[in-house]
User: Which sequence fits this backbone?
């Protein structure tokens, strides 16, 4: 296709003269407000709307974390109305929620002063479950001990779809021929745009890889074992242009593979060299990446290597360390949100 | 931040004369409706008078106008929710605007691709410049160009092959 013709075609479009004259006349007659060039001090409606939304979301998160919506506390004998209550949720550093699933209240003795509260935790044999104890005193000096059994629960069911897609795709792949399977995926994709991007990452036969390649889907799977975690960046709302899948393995620290039809910017450690891989030939660019079997090593914590506008990671290619910046348009906050699902998409549990 | 200075009548006339075709072209391709395109161009020039920015050179001025026009088009698409019209609508307004088949195809492809293809192939902007104009990264622009070309070609094949 010769796009020069498009230029010629477009350039033929001219504004009619009477329209041009009308605009000129209107513009000349138009009197700009005197203070137009000064910064506006009125409300920016869009900004106000965005702020309101943020506030609303924040409020929602706070309420959720405070346990307002939680219904799982089951209190046993409630003869201790003065006893201090524990919050329904206990926030843990890993961002998973712990939920109080049972409470036991015991009145032990009545010869202590009031207003003393102690809390202690102990972990049971099952690492997922914690028993927490609270001691407090009622007005008449009774010591009240409350026991809470705290269990870890998944942070959300937001990504449940992905698991069902994966299981579904696996079942299909086991029973179908390659052609049937391809058709099946594309049929599914019509109804669920996430289907293809989730399913094609983890399970497809060799021929299907070739098919993907021909469609400029760059295969992720090679002899390296895809191990544990997956995050599909397609789900980031602002991320609309580049298909990318980051696969984490936990065998020796965090490693991830990048599957992308986008481009990469490479920078050497001393920040001097700067190489840009042309997107126009992204098929070759990514192919090259896979030939070299780059393993992306993330140092320290993931969040330390994230910045606005992309994921930064130090990688080693043929012994040379380079910093990688993928050009994903995703904020750190958004990416953190996606990291929360890491625990939840344990591929090895399902495939 | 731009410096500002009140535009004189001759400056306004010059600007309209110099840039109106280009802006109209872009707006018409974006909006698919000549009346909307005229509105968008006029509003762009009104903004130009209102804000009265001082530009480094003509290219700077052109880029500013394009950016404003692009935003106007986006606003109009968003708020008026008008579907892209076909060529037949242009004749109803009494104008003889020449739109050939390739431009028509361009007007049918999704908005985000239409904009980058128009800026790149018709207005001959480079990827970095387009990125600056539409507030995206160069890689996103390249992706849009790539996907846009593909959609355009498919559409072209559908209509002509």
Assistant:
């Amino acid at each position: 296709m010769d796009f020069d013709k498009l230029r010629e075609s477009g350039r033929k479009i001219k504004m009619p003269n009477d329209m041009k004259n009308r605009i000129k006349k209107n513009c000349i007659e138009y009197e700009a407000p005197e203070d137009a060039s000064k910064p506006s001090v009125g409300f920016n409606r869009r900004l106000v709307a965005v702020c309101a939304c943020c506030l609303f979301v924040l409020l929602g998160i706070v309420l959720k974390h405070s346990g307002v919506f939680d219904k799982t506390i089951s209190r046993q004998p409630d003869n201790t109305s003065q006893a201090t209550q524990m919050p329904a949720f206990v926030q843990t550093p890993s961002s998973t929620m712990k939920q109080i699933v049972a409470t036991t209240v015991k009145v032990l003795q009545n010869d202590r002063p009031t207003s003393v509260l102690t809390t202690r935790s102990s972990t049971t044999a099952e690492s997922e479950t914690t028993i927490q104890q609270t001691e407090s005193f009622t007005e008449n000096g009774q010591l009240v001990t409350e026991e809470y059994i705290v269990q870890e629960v998944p942070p959300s069911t937001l990504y449940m779809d992905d698991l069902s897609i994966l299981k579904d795709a696996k079942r299909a792949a086991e029973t179908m021929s390659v052609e049937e399977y391809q058709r099946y995926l594309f049929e599914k994709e019509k109804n669920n745009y996430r289907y293809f991007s989730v399913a094609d990452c983890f399970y497809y036969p060799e021929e299907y890889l070739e098919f993907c390649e021909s469609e400029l889907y760059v295969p992720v799977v090679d002899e390296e074992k895809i191990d544990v975690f997956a995050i599909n960046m397609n789900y980031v709302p602002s991320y609309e242009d580049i298909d990318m899948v980051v696969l984490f393995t936990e065998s020796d620290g965090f490693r991830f593979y990048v599957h992308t039809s986008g481009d990469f910017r490479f920078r050497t450690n001393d920040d001097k060299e700067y190489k840009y891989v042309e997107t126009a030939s992204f098929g070759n660019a990514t192919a090259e990446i896979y030939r070299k079997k780059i393993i992306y090593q993330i140092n320290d914590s993931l969040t330390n290597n994230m910045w606005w506008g992309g994921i930064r990671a130090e990688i080693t290619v043929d012994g040379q360390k380079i910093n990688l910046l993928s050009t994903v348009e995703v904020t750190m906050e958004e990416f953190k949100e996606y990291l929360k699902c890491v625990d939840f998409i344990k591929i090895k549990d399902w495939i | 931040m731009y410096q500002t200075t009140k535009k004189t009548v001759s400056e306004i006339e010059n600007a309209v004369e110099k840039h109106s075709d280009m802006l109209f072209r872009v707006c018409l391709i974006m909006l698919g409706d000549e009346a909307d395109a005229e509105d968008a161009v006029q509003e762009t020039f009104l903004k130009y008078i209102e804000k009265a920015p001082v530009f480094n050179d003509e290219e700077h001025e052109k880029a500013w106008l394009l950016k404003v026009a692009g935003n106007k088009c986006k606003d109009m698409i968003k708020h008026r929710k008008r579907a892209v019209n076909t060529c037949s609508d242009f004749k109803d307004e009494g104008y003889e605007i020449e739109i050939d088949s390739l431009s028509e195809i361009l007007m049918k492809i999704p908005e985000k691709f239409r904009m980058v293809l128009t800026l790149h192939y018709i207005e001959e902007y480079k990827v970095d410049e387009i990125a600056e104009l539409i507030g995206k990264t160069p890689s996103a622009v390249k992706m849009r160009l790539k996907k846009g070309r593909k959609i355009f070609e498919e559409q072209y094949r559908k209509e002509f092959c």
